[in-house]
Amino acid sequence: MLRFQWHDVRTPLFICIWMIVILIAKLLFHSNKGGWKAPDSALLIIAGFCVGTILDVFLPHEVYLDPDLFFLYLLPPIALEAGYFVPNRLFFQNLGTIITYAVAGTLFNIIAIGLTLYAFSPLYSVDISLIDLMLFSTLISAVDPVAVLSVFTEINVNELLYICVFGESLLNDAVTIVLYHSLSSMAMIGGDNLVLNDFVWASGSFFLVSIGGVLIGIIGAALTGYMTRLTKDLDHTQPLTCLLVPYVAYLVSESAHFSGILAIMVCGLLMKPYIRHNMSEDALITVKYFLKTIASHSEAMIFIFLGFSTFSRNHNWDFWFIGVTLVSCFVYRFLGTYLFSAIVNCRRQERIGLVDQFIMAYGGLRGAICYGLVMSVDKESLPAKDMFVSTTVVVIIFTVFLQGTTMKPLVQFLQVKRSETQRNKTITQILLQHIQEDTMAGIEAIVGIHGRHFWHQKLTKFDRELVRPFMTAKETSRGDDIVEKYTRAQVSEIKAHLLAVEPTTGVGSRDGLHLPMNPTPPLKKLSVAQTQTKDDGDSNV
Question: Among residues of the chain, what percentage have pLDDT more than 70?
Fold first, then answer.
């Protein structure tokens, strides 16, 4: 007799069906070659809304995002993918500016939004303490500019704007999550029971938790590099190492009450320059696409859950609270961006223009991290959770649908400065960049100034003499780096030339491609995975 044992396969079957729904939704979204272009996040929310309509009819209970599912399974892949694919050189060259936006700017938004919400608290339907409002302002300050970055990549905006938005979002998530955990602990104590020592402890724990997470991330990156070095002849084990070690660093950091998101981001950021010297082309490509796949599906799951949540029976639609939150998020995002841009421009040689500042402020979308944090709030210690969830859903939908869909037309209308260089630099540009850096480092050494180029030379020397011998399977000199970059640029130029050839051109002949009769031979064999530039980021610090 045929029987279907639902309970035996319920969990894995539900996960598979869930993933298939996401795949079908993305297929339908991207099959539209023309017409209205919306961010994937907006379309996934619509898909979640449609599925939620069906579930609301047939299921007696609600489907919601579990905190453990978010923090243990969905957040780590998103954080690892963000850290792994950050452009290293641009990130470290603009680290001071990025930290100013991500730390000082985020703290400004949290305090300003929290105090503004507290000023209007008599108008709300629920009594809320200042600590609870600061907790909400923390989670609502988590930005998610994925849709903005995709527009930047498509239009090829200038590198400074790209890395400022990318870097700020990277560290902003870490800052908000660390503060979220600290304020959650204070909210459990209760605003009326807090004493001065609790605030001192919270301030100290912010730095301790952050430093601990960074240190664990550095250890994880070193361990990943060393393990891939030992297993250089075992290609099939190396991708698993690159995925498991950062995840273990995240779990260890969380269990020790440090910042897990900082640990896994730092691990992904620092391990990338070393594992590419130890791994084959196939192994590197496996790591790249597996990270992109699992991160995109994790984020898609969160947006689907957000679509589900619109049918929750526990919503508290306080229109005063929603209105004040929307206006505060929008206004203080612009104020903070212009304020801290003026501060960083005082010390920058390449200033951030007013148009770029406007785009940075307008690109402060809220998304997956924001929703995941509000769903993780403990309702017993925070009775206003339902109102927080309802407001967060409105803010995310507003920013994703309004700001996300209008970003590309706005960038084109304002004529945002495009990148002056090609995405894939030519060998001439690479050599000129090295000459400029060496010249500036020499000038700084002569005049006794320890500027950016001086410290870059010191870090490069430290990396080559002490770090690389431990973490890579073969020694690499600066000459090897130049040869590698030359080959990478050569392959990129050939790819660009092939893409520029008309479809009617006979690509099978040398004459049809207009290639030289005696092309310069490559200096050494280099894998395709090592020829990637902007997508994976420049691996040199």
Answer: 77
Copy the structure tokens of residue 320. 């005063």
Do 397 and 450 sit in the same domain of this protein?
no
Say how many C-beta atoms besides its own lie within 10 A of residue 135's C-beta.
28
257 and 389 housed in the same domain: yes
C-alpha triplet 134, 139, 140: angle, nearest 5°: 95
Decide which of 413, 443, 472 is a domain's last residue: 413
- In this structure, the answer to whether residues 373 and 446 fall within a common structural domain is no
Could you tell me the two tokens for 516? 């030289």
- What is the extent of the structural domain holding 465? 430-531
- Structure-token pair, residue 61: 């209970």
Q: How far apart are CA 476 and CA 492, in angstroms?
A: 22
Q: CA–CA distance from 476 to each of 279, 435, 436, 441 (Å)?
A: 15, 20, 22, 22
Exposed/middle/buried for residue 321 (C-beta within 10 Å: 0-12, 13-18, 19+)? buried
Read off the pLDDT of each residue in 321-346 and give the average, rounded to a whole number.
Answer: 94
Q: Is residue 335 part of a domain?
A: yes
DSSP state of 366: B
Residues 398 and 437 in one domain: no
| pLDDT reported for residue 60 | 64
Residue 269 lies in a domain: yes
Alpha carbon dihedral 218, 222, 224, 229, in 10-degree steps, equals 160
Asked if 294 contacts 37 with a C-beta cutoff of 8 angstroms, the reply is no
Shared domain for 454 and 358, answered yes or no, is no
pLDDT for res 423:
54
What CATH number corresponds to the domain at position 144?
Answer: 1.20.1530.20
| Residue 195 · residue 182 · CB < 8 Å | no
- Structural domain includes residue 418: no
How far apart CA 6 and CA 63 sit, in angstroms, is 18
Tell which residue, 97, 87, 86, 88, has the closest CA to residue 350: 97
The answer to whether residues 245 and 166 belong to one domain is yes
**406 and 437 housed in the same domain:** no
Q: What is the pLDDT of residue 258?
A: 87
Half-sphere exposure of 208 (CA within 13 A, CB side): 10
Closest among 496, 492, 490, 497 to 523, alpha carbons compared: 490
Q: 157 forms bridges with which residues in the sheet?
A: 418
Q: How many domains does the chain have?
A: 2
- Rounded CA gap, 207 and 203, in Å? 7
Distance (Å, rounded) from C-alpha 241 to C-alpha 222? 12
Residue 332 has pLDDT above 70, yes or no: yes
Rounded to two decimals, what is the model's pTM? 0.80
Instruction: Check residues 378 and 535 and name the one with the higher pLDDT.
Output: 378
Given a cut of 80, whether residue 494 has pLDDT beyond it is: no
Residue-by-residue DSSP string for 209-254: HHHHHHHHHHHHHHHHHHHHHHTTT-TTTHHHHHHHHHHHHHHHHH
Residue 336 lies in a domain: yes
In this structure, the answer to whether residues 45 and 80 fall within a common structural domain is: yes
Confidence class for position 361, pLDDT limits 50, 70, 90:
very high
Query: How many Å apart are CA 400 and CA 172, to the nearest integer?
Result: 18
Determine the average pLDDT of the residues in 218-235.
89
